[in-house]
Write a structure and sequence with these properties.
17 strands, flat, disordered N terminus, three-stranded antiparallel beta sheet, alpha+beta
Length: about 375
């Protein structure tokens, strides 16, 4: 059965026809009932521009911004510390980030609603297909890995992020190094020789550089390492839609564990790396030394958003391995175990081949 009746009640994600739970269908703007097959439009109650609206960071840092609040059941993983919002009918689960069982009593609390969400676009089956393809390509993997790393263990998780904008002006002091060559005479083994030597002439430098930053993306999750999340980029942030809890129906969502001040401090580190490159270009020459930088930030703004990831977690031996898929672009990354026996056999085979080649080469 299919109907275009909108589900307009923000507090309801149950099927009007049979009472079963509705789940968001990736790549659409619809909720689907897996029990009776009904589907319903998610009728937007705000405009698309609201998802891209920038919020004044100075007000938020001063404590003057009050984010919209919602009630959620939150559980903390005892192993990795990830805090996840669960549907209210769940009292136990498996941590999507490390695979540990969560059997603690959920804590009902008020949590800040993100401003925008990037809905799932890739379905679970496509993520699982990418995972199986990745498994087939693994060299030196244990023989029984495919049985352990089952593709049916994928969890759809929304991860929290901050984005920051800022106009910066940086005053700097440093030195410019220009290379030149000169001829020197040296005595080598009793004989005088001349050589061309590269020298560097240093001169003081100072100035100002300006740079406007847009959507510096900072994770608000502590459950996955930054190096992990960075490899899932880029994200099509133009596809953000205003936050609506119905896009989260059927998925897990991690609660932000990085406050806005800590997030902006991390964003300033990202900006500082780019500013240093700008300063080196401004100084010019063949080498640069930077002794001091003072940066002023203006028109600072932020957004609090959720981004979608398919996660698979499996244990092999005593270690936990994770596989993640960007649920918008299909970008994949994973951790994997290695077979010490296969590696040893490969090294032995390489040594035998090398020995044979040396032997036959010596016969000629």
């Amino acid at each position: 059965m299919d109907t275009s009746t909108p589900v307009s009640d923000q507090k309801s994600v149950t099927c009007p026809n049979c009472g079963a739970s509705l789940a968001y269908k990736p790549g659409t703007t619809r909720l689907v009932c897996e029990h009776c097959g009904s589907s319903f439009d998610i009728k937007a109650e705000t405009t698309a521009a609201d998802a891209q609206k920038e919020n004044d960071l100075s007000i938020a840092l001063a404590g003057g911004s009050k984010a919209a609040q919602a009630q959620a059941y939150v559980v903390s993983c005892p192993a990795c510390g990830a805090q996840t919002a669960l549907e209210k009918n769940l009292f136990s689960a498996q941590c999507a980030f490390c695979g540990s069982p969560i059997t603690v009593q959920p804590d009902e609390r008020a949590v800040a609603n993100p401003q925008a969400v990037l809905p799932f676009k890739i379905e679970k089956q496509a993520a699982a297909a990418g995972f199986n393809k990745w498994l087939r390509r693994l060299w030196f993997a244990p023989n029984n890995l495919k049985k352990t790393a089952s593709s049916d263990r994928f969890s759809g998780v929304y991860l929290p992020f901050w984005t920051f904008d800022a106009d910066t002006e940086s005053a700097y002091r440093g030195e410019r190094g220009d290379h030149y060559t000169e001829t020197v005479r040296r005595v080598v083994n009793g004989r005088e020789e001349t050589q061309r030597v590269v020298r560097t002439r240093w001169s003081s430098a100072s100035g100002r550089v300006r740079r406007a930053f847009d959507d510096i993306l900072i994770t608000a999750s502590r459950a996955l390492p930054d190096k992990y999340l960075n490899r899932l980029e880029p994200w099509d942030l133009a596809g953000l839609v205003p936050y609506d809890h119905r896009y989260l129906s059927g998925f897990k969502a991690e609660i932000s564990q990085v406050d806005i001040k800590e997030g902006f401090d991390a964003a300033k580190q990202v900006m500082a790396n780019t500013i240093q490159q700008d300063i080196r270009r401004d100084i010019g020459g063949d080498e640069q030394r930077i002794s001091s930088v003072s940066t002023q930030y203006a028109d600072t703004t932020y957004k609090h958003i959720l981004l979608p990831v398919w996660l698979s977690v499996f244990r092999y031996g005593s270690k936990v391995y994770r596989f993640a898929v960007n649920a918008r672009t299909g970008e994949v990354l994973g951790e994997r175990p290695y077979s010490a026996i296969k590696i040893a056999l490969a090294v032995l085979a390489a040594l035998i081949i090398l020995g044979v080649l040396i032997y036959f080469t010596g016969q000629h």
